[in-house]
């Protein structure tokens, strides 16, 4: 197990790299995703910002890390999300962009006085990956506070309440549980077997809970080797929480190097920023220690913000 200081900085940098690589082609729907693949930072096609600029995935991750630096406080968390949305905090250019309806609606509810844990959406459209994109700091926080960590009721409450600030659906809760546990287990033991065991650990927990058992079958393919080894043409990336996890785990299971996994994730196309960001973060743990491609790092915007956020977190008692 590598030091928390090393892995936290590496993980947040990886979030930003995958995000910035995928953002320009996040709406790409090529029939063959690996025709003319994106292999370097390019200028955004949907926003007037330079190559290497990250979107909401990284902004919300930085805001989450800064908030958790001062402890687990959902009111503080949502205040920082609101500051990001309204004033451009936690962005390279003081302007928030790529804000989806789920996030915008949650922040609006909070601004109007709704309790943080009730701000998340409960519609079918809210079965998306909004919570997934900001979970990495929470996983590090939970592991720091619980050296004898297990995926139990106490952990689940923290994860569910954190998720509920934007998404309050059973599928979103399960998806967040899976991703949080996988991050923690990869920090502890970076290999693919540990990753798959972490998925099973979470699904077994939810199978035992009446309010979630009916939703578990939607995620069971993540336990199946033949699903994770199928052709890329069978993977259908989207913002849906299940589709996102399917895509991320497919990329990881079919790669043996960090940059290969990230390139596969980004070039799947649809919602490439979030799928690229999550894959990049997990791959940085799975294949740790990693050396990030220099041509990616050289163009990455806002690197100082990442360093400052991680440095402050590591000076606290929470990381």
UniProtKB/TrEMBL annotation:
InterPro entries: ADP-ribosylglycohydrolase, Ribosyl_crysJ1, Ribosyl_crysJ1_sf. One of its GO terms (molecular function) is hydrolase activity. It comes from the Bacteria. Keywords: Hydrolase, Magnesium, Metal-binding. The keyword Transcription does not apply. Belongs to the ADP-ribosylglycohydrolase family. This is Uncharacterized protein. It comes from Lentilactobacillus kefiri (Lactobacillus kefiri).
């Amino acid at each position: 197990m590598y030091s928390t200081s090393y892995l936290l900085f590496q993980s947040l940098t990886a979030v930003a790299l995958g995000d910035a690589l995928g953002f320009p082609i996040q709406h790409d729907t090529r029939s063959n995703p690996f025709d003319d693949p994106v292999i370097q930072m390019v200028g955004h096609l949907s926003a007037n910002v330079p190559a290497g600029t990250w979107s909401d995935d990284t902004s919300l991750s930085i805001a989450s890390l800064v908030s958790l630096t001062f402890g687990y406080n959902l009111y503080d968390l949502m205040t920082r999300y609101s500051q990001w949305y309204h004033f451009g905090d936690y962005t390279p250019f003081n302007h928030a962009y790529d804000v989806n309806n789920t996030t915008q609606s949650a922040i609006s509810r909070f601004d109007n006085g709704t309790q943080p844990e009730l701000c998340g959406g409960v519609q079918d459209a809210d079965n998306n990956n909004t919570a997934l994109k900001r979970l990495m700091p929470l996983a590090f926080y939970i592991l720091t506070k619980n050296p004898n960590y297990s995926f139990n009721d106490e952990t689940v409450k923290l994860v569910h309440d954190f998720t509920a600030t934007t998404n309050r659906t059973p599928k979103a809760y399960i998806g967040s549980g899976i991703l949080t546990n996988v991050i923690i287990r990869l920090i502890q033991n970076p290999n693919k077997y540990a990753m798959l065991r972490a998925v099973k650990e979470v699904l077994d927990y939810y199978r035992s809970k009446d309010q979630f058992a009916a939703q578990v079958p939607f995620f069971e393919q993540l336990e199946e080797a033949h699903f994770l080894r199928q052709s890329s043409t069978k993977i259908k990336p989207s913002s849906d929480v299940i589709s996102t996890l399917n895509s991320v785990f497919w990329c990881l299971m079919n790669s043996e190097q960090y940059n290969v996994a990230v390139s596969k994730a980004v070039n799947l196309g649809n919602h490439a920023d979030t799928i690229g960001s999550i894959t990049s973060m997990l791959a940085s743990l799975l294949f740790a220690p990693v050396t990030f491609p220099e041509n990616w790092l050289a163009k990455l915007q806002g690197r100082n913000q990442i360093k400052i956020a991680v440095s402050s977190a590591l000076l606290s008692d929470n990381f």
